Amino acid sequence: MQRRLHHGNRGRLRSHGYFRRLGPGIVTGIADDDPSGIGTYSQVGAATGFNLLWAAPVALPFAIAVQESTARLGLVTGRGLAALIRERFHRSILSIAVLCVVVANTFNIGANLGSMSASLQLLTPIRFEVLIILFTAVLILTEVFIPYQKYVQVLKWLSFSVISYIAVLFFIDADWIEVAKNTLLPQMSFTREHIGAIIAIFGTTISPYLFFWQTSEEVEERGNGDALEVGFPDRGHMQAMRGDVTMGMFSGITVMFAIMVTTGATLGARGPATISSAEQAAEALRPLAGDSAGLLFSLGIIGTGLLSVPVLAGSTAYALSEAFGWREGLSLKLTQAKAFYGVIAFSMIAGLFMNLAGVNSVRALYWSALVNGLVAGPLIVLVWILARSPDIMGTHSSGRASQLFVGGAALIAVVAPVLLIFAV
To answer: What is the membrane topology listed in the Swiss-Prot or TrEMBL record (predicted)?
Structure first.
């Protein structure tokens, strides 16, 4: 029997219906520009101006390499990342890896839910507590009862509202020579502020939850166990996956660059600034939208939040389900995977209570990225070991370029927190 191309026609990237056909990679790229990402990049731009723009082109090959490795793991083995860690490493390593991603994801969910509610308050007088409870309830119900592929088709387009940050580049008064210089000539100040910002940037660009999500979604797209068949995946499947992942991460980091330039030229124009509210963050869009800046900002935060919170909760559910051997998958009904969906609901409720405890939602976005950055290093090392193993990957084990960039991403993620300890 001839196999259909993985994720339908996603391998044909140059014809009508491009965005409709893209697979998990574009979802991952968009989810990467979640409220946590928008908040982090905005804070970095406001605080450091153009000084860290070089982080965007530097992060791109590392982000692509890590996500390609996780996607290849799922595509080749037919198993999720936590399942592969359980098979390959000691149980204690699995426990630590899953605990790290659960903690980071829960904190990230809370930050995203809070920022979505704070953003909507720019448009409505409804109390923050009411809004966040409504968002949590809606997201739980949609992820549990609506097939994710139908849900995400709508949100893909809504979340493209973050492209407004690219559009605003044509309206801001920026020193483009300085932009080019700081983009192409890296300059690093070994201060706590700059090193912390680097950790946050890499933490939200190369996020641990995306590793588990990407691997498991590749498995779901093609059906569990298919990778055991001889001759699968073939060259067409691998090219399609790589094109999908590359476009997803390129899109995400392009938006990251635009946000940092925009906020650096507006909020950070008069020197380092700290963003502590949604109103302040929305001001970066005023050159484009004027008095509608709050509306445009809210659409971007809410759109990416509606997409990324299910990805975060789903990532947590995949990790725990694979670790404990539960039935898993967004393609399954609630009655078929009660524990899996229970984790999704519980993780969102935990994020809800984090906000009800009084955490500043906008500042929490930056701190959630920092937590992701601290957790990412050990997990990238595990991905590097798994993806380069011929015993697991056969002829699809990582090549030299992939090993170099994934290893480099792990090195940055491990060394940066150490530098933070000794920074002044």
So the answer is: Multi-pass membrane protein
**Which one of 20-29, 100-109, 379-388, 410-419 scores highest in mean pLDDT?**
379-388
Structure tokens at 143: 């992820």
Buried b (16+ CB within 10 A) or exposed e, 361-377: bbbbbbbbbbbbbbbbb
CA trace torsion 404, 59, 372, 204 (10° rounding) = -150
For residues 232 and 407, which has the higher predicted lDDT (pLDDT)? 407
Nearest to 241 by CA among 8, 2, 415, 80: 8
Helix (H, G, I), strand (E, B) or coil at 328: coil
Lowest mean pLDDT among 64-68, 81-85, 266-270: 266-270
* CATH number where 90 lies: 1.20.1740.10
Which two three-digit tokens encode residue 413?
Answer: 């993620």
- Residue 346 within a domain: yes
**Would 11 be classed as within a structural domain?**
no
Tell me how many domains the chain contains. 1
SS3 content of the chain, % helix, strand, coil (to 5): 75, 0, 25
Alpha-carbon distance values, 246 to 54, 66, 300, 307, 339 (Å): 19, 11, 22, 19, 33
Average predicted confidence (pLDDT) for the chain: 84
- Domain assignment present for residue 13? The answer is no
* SS3 state at 137: helix
Give the pLDDT confidence of 203-217 residue by residue, as tens digits: 888 888 889 888 887
Name the burial class of residue 175, with classes exposed (0-12), middle (13-18) and buried (19+) by CB atoms within 10 angstroms of its CB.
middle
Structure-token match 């791109």, residue found:
60
- Which of 366, 365, 118, 174 is closest to 288 using CA atoms? 174
Helices 91-120, 338-356: crossing angle, 10 deg rounding: 50
Examine residue 146 and state whether it is found in any structural domain, yes or no: yes
Q: Which domain does 385 fall in, by range?
A: 18-422
Q: Is the pLDDT of residue 226 over 80?
A: no
